[in-house]
Amino acid sequence: MILAGLRRTGGRAPSRRGVEGELRSLALGEGAAALVFAWLAVKGGVGGGAANRFAISLLVFLLAQGSAWWWARLILLRSWRIAHRSIGLRRTVRALDRVNRILLLSAVPVMIVLSAGWGDLVVGLAFFAFALVEYVNYFHVRLSYGRSGFDLRELWRRPMEPSSIRVLLSRTGPHPAGAPTVGVSHGPPSRRICL
User: Fold this and answer.
1) Do 138 and 75 meet the contact criterion of CB atoms below 8 Å apart?
2) 180 band by pLDDT with thresholds 50, 70 and 90
3) DSSP letters of 139-194?
4) Is 172 exposed, middle or buried (0-12, 13-18, 19+ CB in 10 A)?
5) Which end of the chain, N or C, is more open, meaning fewer C-beta atoms within 10 Å of its C-beta?
6) Cβ contacts of 110 within 8 Å, gap of 6 or more
C-alpha cells in the first residue's frame, strides 16, 4: 500500500503526512472490518451455527491484529525510539504468529466438531478461507495491491513480495543496511521506518 503511494507521487518518496495518512487509513479500515465481523459473530454468524461463528471469530482476531499492526507502524513512524520499540514489536508479532498458526491448524477440526450441519460447516470454511488469506497477507507475502487493496491482475503480474510483518520478523537488528525504508527524508536514518 505504501509503495502505491510512491507511484502516485511520481516515484518520489511520499511525504511524512502522506505515509501517516496511509497507515491511519489501513488501521481504520482493518479495525472497521473487524468490528463488522465481530457484530456478525455476536448476532449468531450466518445461519446461527457455532462453526461459522468460530471461523468469524478467528477472522476478527486476525483483522484486529492487522489494525493493531498499522497503528503500531504509525506510532513507530512518529517515535525517536524506533529501534527499541521495533524490537518489542518484533517479539510481540512473532508470538502472535505462533498463536495464529496453532489456531489456523486446529480450526478445521474444531469447526467439524462444532458444526450444526453441512450448511454451517460450508459457511464456516468460507470464513476460514478468508481468515487464512488475511493471515498469509499479514505474515507471509503481500497479497494486496492497487487502490482496492486486492487486485488479481496486479497479483499475477508482479512477483510475490514479503509482507511488512515478514520483513520485520526476518530482520536481525533494529534496522539493517539495505532494508526497504519509507519515511521522511529529514532526520537521522534511524528515524526511517521499514514498511
Assistant:
1) no
2) very low
3) HTB----SSSS--HHHHHHS---B-HHHHHHH-SSSS-TT---B--SSS-GGG-B-
4) exposed
5) N
6) 54
Contact present, 141 and 160 (Cβ < 8 Å): yes
Q: Give 162's strand partners.
A: 141
Report the C-alpha gap between 143 and 156 in whole angstroms. Answer: 10
Instruction: Output Rg (C-alpha) for the chain, integer angstroms.
Output: 18
The overall longest dimension of the chain from CA atoms, in Å, is 59
Cα gap 44→53, rounded to integer Å: 6
The DSSP symbol for 81 reads -
> Which tens digit of pLDDT belongs to each residue from 22-56?
889 889 999 999 999 999 888 876 777 899 899 99
Q: Is residue 82 within 8 Å of 191, Cβ to Cβ? A: yes
User: Taking the model in full, what pTM does it have?
Assistant: 0.75
The stretch 162-190 carries a mean pLDDT of: 55
Cell digits of residue 76: 513507530
Contacts of 76 (CB under 8 A, 6+ apart): 82, 85, 86, 89, 193
Cite the DSSP H helix spans in the chain.
2-8, 16-42, 50-78, 82-114, 118-139, 152-157, 164-170
CA–CA–CA angle 136, 140, 143 (5° rounding)? 60
